[in-house]
Structure formats: structure tokens, C-alpha cells
Amino acid sequence: QVRLAESGGDSVQAGGSLRLSCRASGHTSRSYCMAWFRQAPGKEREGVATIDIDGAPNYADSVKGRFTISKDNERSILFLQMNSLQPDDTAMYYCVAAHSWVCNGKDYDAMDYRGQGTLVTVNS
To answer: CA–CA separation, 107 vs 81, rounded Å?
Structure first.
């Protein structure tokens, strides 16, 4: 069993930056891909970024060039650096993981583990 705990959500002005963290604990010895999903009020949950077991990142078109996903394997922490934030980025952000080489960034329910979320609010 792997437990995921997100942190770093906050309220910022448009154009600002935030870095989200997700600490994995428990049976982290097995390899897994990881990803960030988000859900804005009244909208469907969407994949933001994924990172494969070998560290290869993929991004949703809406965040390309602004967000960067990375991971620290030694400390079992996943990061999401978010720059040039816009009001449309306002959402609850969820960290997920799956025992798979590649995470499907379009299928939240297919993930093996999910965090409780951290709230990001971007004010105009």
C-alpha cells in the first residue's frame, strides 16, 4: 500500500508561481508512474502532467510551457512547479500513482493510489 500526501496549495495572484509537493509513504519500493490531476469547481477532473518510471514527462496542452513535473526518487516526492498561473488554473490538485511504466493522463480511476488533494486558487 502506498499513501500519497499533497502540499503546497495556496491562493496567489495571476502571473504568480507555486510548487506542489506529493510525498509517497508506505511500500514505495516498487516502481510506479505518477501524475497530477486537477478538478475545478463545476468541471470534470483532468490530467495535468504525468511522469513515467524512467522520468519522462508529459503535459496537458493547457499547461505546456508553464508547468514542470519532476520527482525525487530518493525521498519519494513528486513535484509540480507551476508558473504564470491563471485563474483557469484554480482547482483541487491531486497526486496519483500507478504500478505501470506509463500513467494514463486521461484516466484518474485507473490509478492505483490517490492523494486527498491540495487547493490552488488563482486570483485575477
So the answer is: 22
Question: pLDDT for 74-108, tens place per residue?
Answer: 889 999 999 999 999 999 999 999 999 999 989 99
pLDDT band for position 73 (cuts 50, 70, 90): confident
Q: For residue 19, what are the contacts with CB-CB under 8 A and spacing of at least 6?
A: 8, 79, 80, 81, 82
Burial of residue 63 (CB within 10 Å: 0-12, 13-18, 19+) is buried
Does the structure show a pLDDT above 90 at 28?
no
Longest dimension (CA), the chain: 42
pLDDT at 31: 84
pLDDT for position 107? 93
Spatial contact of 97 and 2, defined as CB atoms under 8 Å apart: yes
